[in-house]
Amino acid sequence: MGLKHDLYLSRKPLAGYIAIGVAWSTYFAQMPVIKANVGASDGAYGMAILVSSFGAIAAMWLAPMAQRMLGGRAMTLAILLVALGMFSSGMSVSLVLLIVGMTFAAVGSGVVDVLVNARVSEIEARTGRALMNLNHGIYSFAYAGAALMTGVLREAETSTLTIFALLVAALVLLAWAARDRAPQQDDSDNGVIPGAMPNTLVLIVGLVVMAGFLAEAATEGWSALHLERTLGGTPGEGALGPALMGLMMGFGRLSGHAIARLMRDTTLMLVATLVSACGLVLAGLAGTVWIALAGFALAGLGISVVAPLALALIGRVVHPSQRLAAISRASVLGYGAFFFGPPLMGLVAEGFGLRASFLVIAGLLALTAIVLLPMLARRA
Description:
Blueprint: H1 2-9, H2 11-29, H3 31-38, H4 42-70, H5 73-90, H6 95-127, H7 132-155, H8 160-177, H9 199-230, H10 235-260, H11 265-285, H12 289-303, H13 306-317, H14 323-334, H15 336-352, H16 354-379
């Protein structure tokens, strides 16, 4: 009954988590086909994603304004914008059209991401239930399931039009399910003067989230290409890369709450970051598809808890009236991974190969564990 109750409490934001998971999983599993259709090199493709990422960064910063203006409709409209952007991207025949479509999808995803995390944090504060890892875990399972389904459809030589038409239909249903009232102000706010925004803590949390998203984005966006091009895998094996990572992230996040009871959040994040770095090293140095898949699975299991724990931490320590703004700012920094991650991966791959790209991301994770997480532990 506890799990059922938790799912019921977070059912509205959960639809938003599932929507962005299904959307980006389908896109990344189909990415080798889309990339070939627009005729882009690794470097050009990475720069295209960089340009579209500006939309996500701006949207996350403006998400509180969208919430104030649109209320409970904000998440529904943002999911519909993701659907429009994904369909446009899937049907693109030029790099310019791909950039336009990806920008729409990135803007919608940025708004959804901030709103669902803030909404779950609000529900946690109101009910005393730990929900962040649960919601992020189901996001990961949705991501894995969509990647596997896309791989099956690719193996069956299903057209890109059909794949993205099915995606749009799913997103429309999820947009309807995400309809919600505007979050009400917490009664505990009455008569309480908010303290100053802890900007240094927000900065550190944002950088930690960035490291987690960087490992996630590197595997989601480039694992299929690494498996198919570097290691000679089939389209179905290529789709297993993002699917397996999503599956392991789901298991890691669902177990994260129980593990967190045995150690400090920051200690768990440190261990998880190092485990993920080891997984990316294994994937980058792998000589076979199956060893690379094992590395991606390990990377997903490790990195799974980092962003949810960091966002839950900032949601707990700031004043309730500042929660949405703090999560928005930390998310903007976190999404820097999608800002410089794709061009970093693309440019390193262009010069040194995809193997070197994954090793670079592993090195950045190690630096996060050595430098940022001890700083976060002292301040939190």
